[in-house]
Amino acid sequence: MKRVTMQQIADHLGVSKFVVSKALSGKGGVNEHTKSRVIQAASQLGYFAQKNAYIKNNEGEPNVVGTSGMQSVIVLMPNIRFQTKDSLYWGKIMEGISRELEQKGLGMVIVTESRVDSFVHVLNPSGIFGMIGVGQIDSELLLETHRLGIPMVLVDHEDDLIPTDTVFVNNTDAIARLCNHLIGLGHTRLQFVGDVRFSRSFQDRWIGFRKALEQNGLEALKPIDPMITLDGVDSGEFAGEFEKWLAKMKEKGQLPTALVCANDSIAFGVMSTLQKHGIRVPEDISVTGFDNIDDADRSQPALTTVHVPKEAMGERSVKKLLERIQHPELTVEKILVSADIVYRDSTSGPRKQ
Description:
One of its GO terms (molecular function) is transcription cis-regulatory region binding. Residues 4-47 form the HTH lacI-type domain. InterPro entries: HTH_LacI, LacI/GalR-like_sensor, Lambda_DNA-bd_dom_sf, Peripla_BP_I. The chain has three domains: 6-45, no CATH class; 72-168 and 311-337, Response regulator (Rossmann fold); 171-308, Rossmann fold (3-Layer(aba) Sandwich), CATH 3.40.50. The protein has twelve helices and eleven strands. It has helices at 6-13, 17-25, 32-45, 90-103, 116-122, 139-147, 171-184, 200-215, 230-235, 239-252, 264-276, 310-326; strands at 72-76, 107-111, 131-134, 152-155, 165-169, 190-193, 258-261, 286-288, 305-307, 334-337, 340-342.
């Protein structure tokens, strides 16, 4: 296949090769708008997908020495407001990463830097064994890692611009099976609760929801996409908007019989609001979640949800990173880890009218 050159990218955009080189080098001298255009064009033309697009680190075995004197892997988790090691979701993934690295005799350096200029100081290609990115990460941070030829694996996130190995739970199939369970109970008015712009996982769960309804000949209600903002999913700020939506639907007599929530945290907020308005769960409306965080079995009622093997995702990311380091020529993979449905008390058959 013919190689894509910087000159071709420059001709495509009508800029100089010098501008393209600056934008792709990670150095300054190019404004953000132009840099974004160059990156987008490079991706569309296949520049990042070709081998040796960037200078690779071939000077022997990479070596990061931490305080313990062992080789270490950088774990990048820049959304420090909500994606922390204490999180009931992200913390479990981090435990899996840490445990697997320890078994392999490797250390872990957690990096929470979200600014590219500061992040660059951490990325010394001659001293990094590899990187695992956890959760939402800005494209520029990933581009800088890719530019330096550092092997990386992303967990619960992918970037359309940068080809890299990823590890996800099988979101689409898992939520489709959950919806089929609800439909089997007799539900025909199902509503998805979650902002598909929040993450790739939410988008895949929405696709699985629609897939189940289409396969069963049901027409989905209008999604609540505009209701939940990106920040509101993690902070719980969506509760007020959900309450307004609930009042409107109740007044119209158009309440669904089941609410399929994009994750457990949303489900907790939904159940609390329903109960506040005298709507019983599951007698009036069934509610499901996704993730099976530790609080799911302690909620009132206990939450029917999808169990995400979070530690296993972390462990798998380490194994994939080591495989990528040993065999850089392998095809990029998207690894889907299977998930199981946990049936609890928040679901039942629909109330007879």
